[in-house]
Amino acid sequence: MNVPTADPALEADAAVERKKKSKKPKYSRFTQQELPACKPLLTPTIVISTFALIGILFIPIGLASLSASENVVEIVYRYDTECIPQQSQDDKVAFIQSSATDKTCRTTLTVPKNMKAPVHIYYELYNFYQNHRRYVKNRNDKQLRSKEYELETTNCAPEATTVDGSPIVPCGLIAWSLFNDTYSFAIQNKAIEVNKKNIAWQSDKDEKFGSDVYPKNFQQGGLIGGAKLNESIPLSEQEDLIVWMRTAALPQFRKLYGRIETDLVANEQISVTIQNNYNTYSFEGEKKLVLSTTSWIGGKNDFLGVAYLTVGSLCLFLALAFIVLYLLKPRTLGDPSYLSWNRNPDRH
Amino acid sequence: MPGGRRRDRLRWSKIYTFARFWPTVGDDEQPSFHGGPSYSRTVHCNQPQLHRKKPFKYSSNYITTTKYNVITFLPKALFEQFRRVANIYFLLAAALSLTPVSPFTPVSMIAPLAFVVGLSMAKEALEDWRRFMQDMKVNMRKVNVHKGEGQFDHKQWQNIRVGDVVKVEKDQFFPADLLLLSSSYEDGICYVETMNLDGETNLKVKRSLEVTLALDDDEAFRDFTATIRCEDPNPNLYTFVGNFDYERQIFALEPNHILLRDSKLRNTNYVYGVVIFAGHDSKVMQNATKSPSKRSRIEKKMDRIIYVLFTLLVLISVISSIGFAIITKNKMPNWWYLQPDQTTSLYDPDRAALSGFLHLVTALILYGYLIPISLYVSIEVVKVLQATFINGDILMYDEDTGNHAQARTSNLNEELGQVDTILSDKTGTLTCNQMDFLKCSIAGVSYGVRSSEVEIAASKHMESEATGDDAGVYGSYEVELDHEIDFKSDNPRKPTIKGFSFEDDRLMHGNWAKEPTADTILLFFRILALCHSAIPEPDEKTGGFTYEAESPDEAAFLVAAREFGFEFCKRTQSSVFIREKYSSSEDLIEREFKILNLLEFNSKRKRMSVIVRDASGKIFLLCKGADSIIFDRLAKNGRMYESETNKHLTEYGEAGLRTLALAYRVLDESEYSDWNAEFLKAKTTIGPDREAQVERISDLMERDLILVGATAVEDKLQKGVPQCIDKLAQAGLKIWVLTGDKIETAINIGFACSLLRQGMKQICLSTINNVVAQDANKAAKESLLMQITNASQMINLEKDPYEAFALIIDGKTLTYVLEDDMKNHFLNLAVNCASVICCRVSPKQKALVTRLVKEGTGKVTLAIGDGANDVGMIQEADIGVGISGVEGMQAVMASDFSISQFRFLERLLVVHGHWCYKRIALMICYFFYKNIAFGLTIFFFEAYTGFSGQSVYDDWYMLLFNVVLTSLPVITLGVFEQDVSSEVCLQFPALYQQGQRNLFFDWYRIIGWMFNGLYTSIAIYFLSIGMLYHQAFRSGGQTADMAVVGTTMFTSIIWTVNVQIALIMNHFTWIQHLFVWGSVATWYLFLVAYGMSSPTISGNAYQILLEALGPAPIFWIATIIVTAACNIPYLTHKAFQRAFNPQDQHVIQEIKYYKKDIEDAHMWKREKSKARQKTKIGFTARVDAKIRQLRERLNKRALSTSQSLEE
């Protein structure tokens, strides 16, 4: 810290005393721009230690994140093609859109490592633009929140009202296109219970989706989108819908489906029964079933750790590079020979 | 004034000679010009009701100087705001945000615009309100007005109409332009102070017409009627043409009869007058001109950067709308979840081109964050605050005048840091405009033993040269230099009597009578005491007199005359009384001299004369004037002392003194009366050529003069001028002096200020005017071109790098070189010269020279002056600085900055200019950086949403970004940043050159910042996306939705840009800490508050920080790594630059930081002197030149000794 001394201050103060009536500006360290100030200097020591410190801090964080990510056990199973019977492979869209076909699909997954409960079940969609502007805006938060605003269907077109004009609850394309594949799991023919409670944010259940709002006229039109809703359950308890209504940022996203609250042991065979209802075939999308544990950083993602390690090691490298540079080309701080007039005296 | 009262009720008009000027004009034929368009005003005196209706409905006395009124404020102020291209864009965007095209809610577009425009408009409204209040204060003033029937009553100014008779009392302002009818003095004179008009503090005498003298009480106006026919309203303060039709006689009116609005009645108990011009017709209001609005170079460049950003905006908008059209056409039909069959034209796959086009509009709005909406308003705020710092700087406060520096327009602050050329007036700017009578030459003998400042300076130099053989060492010359400057500033000869520094026993104490030429000396003194237009003011304290004179020279003469024993003590309209005292033993004799005529001074005539009749009845013409004019008019027998006087005049000129020659002529009665008849005729001519006539007749009289002698007064340099010039020169500024003075005086002042020195090669450009008129122009130009070419060659061929040249040119020559075909040659020559002095230049030429420099060199010019004659130059230059000193307010009114002393220019430029330049430059760069960094993340996100125009951020985040979350830190940067302290700025004027060379706002730097912004946006976006990918982001298994991703990214941005600004800052007071870290804290607070608001407002951001993000470690560590990754490149760059390529301020900061300046004072001093080593003008240059000279001499000596040894 370098605090400038304000020696003209005293004299000036005295002058103020002498001439009070004049327009003389009042002296203060503020108006004279002489406030005590910290003037940090980017000295080699500070530069090197900053970089070194960042490196030293970041590398452990990176390692911790990586190991956390490594400890996460994840089973990813893409089923969108496999769940179409052989004869329908040429026209998947027709298969999925037909109400006559049996869409049940069975498969077996092997648990690679022990998975501690809770094991989170996700569905993952690819190439699905939940972040499209038309889609994102196609909802009405007021209507979702309370019965009072049942008629409020602004922004919901074309899923706002039925043909006779009565409101659709919940209205809008997001709700209309609700994901409707279902999964059930069994180990050695013994069904594993899937807990589908508490998959949504508590605040969403409490505040955003009304406990007095019941689905109405939903999926009754000519065009059926996704899942239907049980009209006797209020929206606040339709957690699948609440999760779905949190639109994803990217066209590839996972959403929480439920949790398995028993530990899964390595090499166990889980038989999965999938009701393959959701149409991702029209737009060349993908569907995946994901079973994953979590760590403190969440799911499996090496990027965080790698990024930290990269930045951390880059900083260490920079610290070293600056040490070398300062050694090779030392400059005494405050060496006047670096002043421009000493460096090229002939400029004028 | 008691003096005024004493003089009341004297019947002076009995001896009132001017009475004869006004013959009764029986044949009241209307002079033809009254019918003309410009002399059509008719005023019916005492019948204001006639002026209420047409055709005499002149404007009322209500004035308004406001830009707006209640009705026009909104449209006009809005129009002003939307003249800025960026604001128009935002207005369009806001309008479109009401349509479905908009990606944002209307409020998020309209609120920031309303805030920004509202703030600017509030500022306008406040300023205008102040003007309105000021107007109202003036309009509500009261004055006594004739209500009819001889009754006077108080009335507000605004209700006065043309034709009203008003009674103005002592020390009141005149409410309108009045015709003076009578005053408390029986001869109808009154004294007027015109401070508000021209700033002159001396009183002026106005006289009423003889015929209206009787109207001197209220009752007299009961039946008073008269008609005035006069010129139309015009801004000429010093002319007035009209006549007065009273009691079937017509009298001519002249400026002397007119009392101008805003001047003040002094020393007179009351006057009666009739309103001629009211309100906006009055001369002072007609004179109010709007000064041209100036913009700084940085701001102009900033506009260009905004255009660059607009181009970028359009580019990415086009990219994204093409992308959108393609995706809509090819892919969207398959996206059943969007119901592509039932869509609006915004997303219609069948009409993809239309959708694409509509999307272009959306994109233009969406990426609008590239254009910093708050930039203009932030800059305005910053500049106003900077201006308050300039205004409040105690070190630019002048105790003598009580004025502080004032930034009258705040939008040029940063321009102060880039000035290249200073064009300075001389009188009142470099010099005090206080004259000291120092020497005189009478009858060919020079009197006065004291030396002028210039002579003292010169002799000091000679002395130090003689003793300074050992001064070749650095250290000792440093000491000597300081000493020398100190000597000059602190030890001036303090004259005991203001205006009189003369000392010579031959003339003082009545000793002059013993001189052989006593008669001539007597005449000399009488000319001093009689030939003037001053008014004596009795001085209560001393019992003597002080003089209200038109020019300081005149006052100096009167003081001198008084000291010589010829005390001017009284003036009546017809006579001047002088108390003469021939020697100290003799008694006072009061002598009366009748003033028959007074031939006034003007700049064209350059002389003034009085014709007096002394007690014995002899008539004299006494004349004083410029030497060249007088010498041309001498009689054959009047040239007795010509050669000696001429020699003395040259000497005086060399000593930096201002000279006038005095002469007289004896007239005989018949000669005079013949001439006077003609003169009267000329005077009473009614019409525009009256002046020419008067001048011609005057000229006839001022011939065949007999030379008496010459006077020399010293025009004193202002305090600190040489040092200031020295410092400014060291800061790399070029200084041109433009003066109305003659060449010799200008050169002398040049020497006194060290703009010139011995050994400097002077190039004088001049014209020879002995050629026949026909091709005079051509010949003059050819010869000038020759001179210029020769001089340029001489400069080019000059090998000695230390050789300096000075260019001296006079006004007449300037008229030629300013012509289009010559001016570039001239300019090329002038810029190669170290100093340029232009003499005898007219105000217009001053402006033209300024324009030439400004446009020719393309560099920033600053004009500084104090008088009305400098207004043109002040308005023309990039920056106009007015000296708020004694001479007047006009220069100040026209200026952008006003200071009270030339020496404050150093602090204004070198400290405030330097700071403001750096602050604004950094601030603008940072602004663009931050908006690019933010705006491009929106674009990157677009690519992942099928270019649909969805923003990842909540509308409220976007709204707050520019207006709240990042605005205050950048304002603190713009207001408080300091690279080095003010003291260092002054010690190292070389730092100023960073501004001149525009090191901090060149395209290299701007583009660098833009790339930094680009990098930051990429880093923020991809790091955030990479970390918050499809996996769960919390141990609870929840995945990130758009609100989580957007908020995390936005938090990273807030951290990044605030850490970035902290890295830019060199100077942290508590204010910076508060605003920078406070902004970050505000963001979190906002997030909490926003999360608590109803979910219908906050949407998916409901409870986002407390519930979703806060407990997630990834949110915090993502913020940290993004902030670090974004700032590492800048930090590396800065550290590298500092370590291996430090700029001057870096090294100085280090020296200061490690207190090396205290430890190694010698080094510090050496660097200070080296930093200012490169100038060719100023004291330092003088000393340098001397040292070189000495070294050469030593070398030669050494050489010769060695040679002799060899032999």
How is this structure best described in words?
The complex is a heterodimer of chains A (348) and B (1207). Chain A starts with 7 loop residues before the first helix and ends in a 5-residue tail after the last helix. The longest helix of chain A has 28 residues, at 44-71. In chain A, helix 2 (44-71) packs antiparallel against helix 9. Chain A is built from ten helices and nine strands. Chain A has a five-stranded antiparallel sheet. With 348 residues, chain A is α+β, with helices and mostly antiparallel strands. Chain A has helices spanning 8-18, 44-71, 92-97, 133-136, 141-145, 173-176, 202-208, 239-245, 302-328, 340-343; strands at residues 74-78, 104-110, 119-126, 182-187, 190-192, 194-195, 253-260, 269-275, 286-292. Chain B is an alpha+beta fold and 1207 residues long. Helix content of chain B is 47%, strand content 16%. In chain B, strands 14-33-32-31-15-27-30-29-28 form a nine-stranded mixed sheet, sandwiched between helices. In chain B, a hairpin with a 6-residue loop joins strand 18 and strand 19 (545-548). Chain B is globular and about 120 Å long. The model of chain B is unreliable at 1-37 and 468-495 (pLDDT under 50). The chains are: A alpha+beta (348), B alpha+beta (1207). At the A-B interface, helix 1, helix 2, strand 3, helix 4 and helix 5 of A face helix 9, helix 31, helix 32, helix 36 and helix 37 of B. Chain B: This is Phospholipid-transporting ATPase. Chain B: InterPro entries: ATPase_P-typ_P_site, P-type_ATPase_IV, P-type_ATPase_N, P_typ_ATPase, P_typ_ATPase_c, P_typ_ATPase_HD_dom. Chain B: It is an enzyme of class 7 (translocase). Chain B: Its cofactor is Mg(2+). Chain B: Its EC number is 7.6.2.1.
